Hints:
Active site: 2, 602
Bound molecules: 5-amino-5-deoxy-1-O-phosphono-D-mannitol
CATH architecture of the largest domain: 4-Layer Sandwich
Strand order of the largest sheet: 3-2-4-1-10-9-11-14
Low-confidence stretches: none
Number of strands: 26
Distance between the termini: 10 Å
Number of helices: 18
Domain SIS: 285-425, 457-597
Number of domains: 3
Region (Disordered): 59-84
Strand content: 15-25%
Radius of gyration: 25 Å
Main location: cytoplasm
Subcellular location: Cytoplasm
CATH superfamily of the largest domain: Aminohydrolase, N-terminal nucleophile (Ntn) domain
CATH class of the largest domain: Alpha Beta
Shape: globular
CATH topology of the largest domain: Glutamine Phosphoribosylpyrophosphate, subunit 1, domain 1
Helix content: 25-40%
Amino acid sequence: MCGIVGGSSKRNVLPILVEGLKRLEYRGYDSAGVAFTANKKITQVKTVGRVADLESQLKKSDESNNGIAHTRWATHGVPNTKNAHPHSSLNEIFVVHNGIIENHEPLRNNLIAEGYKFISDTDTEVITHLINYYKNAGHDFDSAVIRAIKDLKGAYALGIIDVNNPDFVIGAREHSPLVVGEGIDENFIASDVMALSQVTNKFKFLEDGQIAIISNDNIEILGKNGAPKNIATQEIDSTAYTNDLAGYSHFMEKEIFEQPTAVSNSIEGRVLESGPQEGIFGAGFEEALVDISNIQIVACGTSYHAGRIFEYWSHKFLGINCRVDYGSEYQYQEPIKTQKTLLVTISQSGETADTLASLRFAKKTDNPITLTICNVANSSMCRESDYTMLTNAGPEIGVASTKAFVTQLSCLSLLLLTLMKINNKPENSIKKISKALMDLPKNIQQTLEDLEPYKKVAKLIFNKNSALFLGRGMYFPIAREGALKLKEISYIHAEAYPAGELKHGPLALIDKNMPVLAVVPDNEHLDKILSNIQEVAARKGRVFSIGPISKTEITKEGGHINIPKTLDLLNPIISIVPMQLISYYTAIYKGTDVDKPRNLAKSVTVE
Ligand code: M6R
């Protein structure tokens, strides 16, 4: 979950590395650092805090043709300059690292016994000393790297420079993403293509176990044992990777307002009023899914909530058993052999370590048909799944997921429709859902027209310590997603409960200081949830409700936010938008860092 970038160029590479780090800050922002070769030595600059602080510490006179840089999300060791990357061994070898070295302790003990001194608390420092150790044992720079990574257990994407080889940067990956960017008279490595989209649109995507040796005029890719590998260069549309606020105050705000377009982009050309198009999940998907008896979804965080909504859809409209697990749990369960299962991973980044490990675990233990619903083409999940549907949300920079969620749900609606077709469900139901799905961008747009109700609720809750979110049926995952949004950006403790569970415990929490946000559906649960709301109001709890019903006031104290009504199965997608905006304005009133909430990172590539 750190971001790394490195490059070798005929021009000054430092501004490119700093810009790359800015684009990678979504991966972590506890500290930042850079190491570069100049005048036969390597200079490093490190700082606690943001890349902007690092930039201000670089001198105008600093220039280099070769360097590596890092923005950190702390795993081993608190965020301070000592633990910030790059880490060096005797000022000769410098390393930036994303990932976790699981066997760092025994390696550290061996290296201490060899006389190496450790100055940081990080797992990364063992890598620098290990490379140094193998160099001293007679290996060249590249073969010392190849030898050293054989000793590592865990996950890593590395950028490495050596004072004695000042024209080279070496990259290596195992379970953490790393791309090579091909320029003219310059070449780069980075955690993702966005970091380099200002300098190239040509990329090679490294596989696990591969290393890249780059200089300004050459790229050499080697396999685990040092044998040369050929990887095709892919041209990626770099205009899709902008990180421009476009007049908005925050990326989260921009991304909330992009949702109508994002949903259009994710369904366009994939569904018509007659139903979903053939082959939208990849050639042969429909044939492969005849007779599936189970759907297993694995995801984390917001993406997990999208999966939980599909679970309800699958049971109600398909009659197919669907189970949803967190990535961090699924990969450690006892493997169960199932009959013809579709395994769906859902991920904005396509690199979330727990989800990716679960995909690999399932492939090994149960051999299911694998589909990923993902926002990043060429991500590990896309490359390792049988079928892919890209969400087409465009880059999501704000740590809090917004447009990723609604586009995941749009793609899951397409999955539902495709499975309905395969399972010969009534044509008129397929048509009705398809038409409503095509109207979804318009419905979402309507929720963005009057922002006052959201600001009003935010003003009433921003100074509270806790909030409760309620929902029933497929609106319960929406309540969970609403609570996640509020807690992650405003730091208000927020919990979601199925509304019927209130009286089994949480009702004890209700008093005038406990705001309750309830999602009210226009379906068979309406009366029941209205009763639950009354139970709260009777105990002086302040209830704010959101739903496609015309009641203007549910309680005197709180208030009701009316949202456009569509088919019951799609209404959850619309109802998340007010929750996102309430969280956004709450964070604004509290003055927290909306796009970079404390302790979090956008892409969680460590377990
Ligand atoms: O990239 P992914 O969708 O796999 O990320 C999973 C979670 O880390 C992510 O959804 C996280 O919960 C959100 N950023 C929260 O808003």
